[in-house]
Write a structure and sequence with these properties.
Layout: E1 9-13, E2 25-31, E3 34-37, H1 41-54, E4 58-63, H2 65-71, H3 75-82, E5 86-89, H4 92-101, H5 111-125, E6 128-134, H6 137-150, E7 154-160, H7 169-182, E8 186-190, H8 195-203, E9 211-214, H9 218-222, H10 231-235, H11 239-246, H12 248-259, H13 263-278, H14 281-290
Parallel strand pairs: 4-5, 4-9, 6-7, 6-8, 8-9
Antiparallel strand pairs: 1-2, 2-3
Helix pairs in contact: 1-5, 2-12, 4-13, 11-12
Length: 291
């Protein structure tokens, strides 16, 4: 997976995730100060399962364009993503930006698909304990039964549905204790960005040996309450269009008012990185001396 390109694109040391004693080098491209994994879904899966076998655990983020929009005014989110063990590209625009910036192996890896891949691979290797955090109790229960049915070897050991408000210190302590007690291999946090990234940061040391992944509204898909776009739309990077048609009232404002404005500066940054990658070394050195 090694990539040898510019100083902002390639293999670099990620800041260690909370509770991990080792720093792991992962190939990535930095866009908007967010390190996006430069690898396939299979590469990401192998990285995570290796971290699990080592007992290190991992903080996994699945970043779509909305992450970049929120991160413009949320330094806490930027820090959470920079401290994640791996940030995969969940969305065609992020993949396109990564490729423009010089990434060579980057691939779209959605939270829904990656959570399923982790469950199936974990279940294949033996009993795989999964904790679920988020959504309402009914949806979480239906999603849990679906995960166990489609991923032999998976055991849902905990379902927590936090209140739709900031939990009290007592509630946080109880949730942390419950997660620690069930000793999970995987914790699925379905709260949406940036809340799920904050919860992963705050609760990680309750189970530092586990994989923690933020997956937005994935429980709705697991439970059958919402349907994925047809495979052809997914392959063409048009799943967002299907979601917009399904939920125009909520997503129209998000896509058009919040997400679209971040594209021009990200395109400019990615193009600049691409230029740095392919510019002859003597030119880069001369420019550096001029500065």
């Amino acid at each position: 997976m090694a990539v040898e390109i510019s100083t902002r694109v390639g293999i670099a040391e990620q800041r260690a995730s909370s509770g991990s004693s080792l720093r792991r080098a992962v190939p990535h491209v930095i866009l908007g100060d967010i390190p996006i994994f430069d690898g396939t879904s299979e590469d990401a899966l192998a990285f995570c399962m290796d971290a699990l076998e080592r007992g290190e655990g991992a903080r996994i983020a699945t970043a779509n364009l909305d992450f970049f929009a929120i991160a413009r005014t949320n330094e806490e989110l930027v820090d959470d993503l920079q401290r994640s063990s791996i940030v995969v590209a969940d969305g065609a625009p992020v993949v396109a930006l990564g490729r423009l910036a010089g990434a060579r192996r980057i691939e779209r890896t959605t939270g829904v698909d990656f959570a399923l891949a982790l469950c199936r691979e974990g279940g294949r290797r033996g009993p795989f304990r999964v904790a679920m955090y988020g959504s309402d109790p009914e949806t979480a229960d239906r999603a849990a039964r679906a995960l166990e049915a489609t991923s032999p070897g998976v055991e849902i050991v905990l379902r927590l549905s936090p209140p739709f408000r900031s939990p009290t210190p007592e509630e946080r302590a109880a949730d942390r204790a419950a997660i620690a007690a069930c000793d999970p291999h995987l914790v699925l946090v379905a709260l949406g960005c940036p809340k799920q990234e904050r919860v992963i940061r705050e609760y990680f040391d309750a189970a530092p040996q586990a994989l923690w992944i933020g997956i937005g509204g994935a429980f709705d898909f697991f439970a059958g309450k919402r349907r994925r776009a047809a495979p052809i739309f997914q392959r063409l990077g048009l799943e967002w269009v299907v979601r917009l048609v399904q939920d125009p009232r909520r997503l129209a404002s998000r896509y058009l008012r919040r997400d679209l404005p971040v594209l021009p500066p990200l395109l400019a940054e990615a193009a600049s990185l691409r230029f740095e990658v392919h510019r002859p070394r003597w030119t880069r050195a001369r420019t550096s001396r001029q500065r």
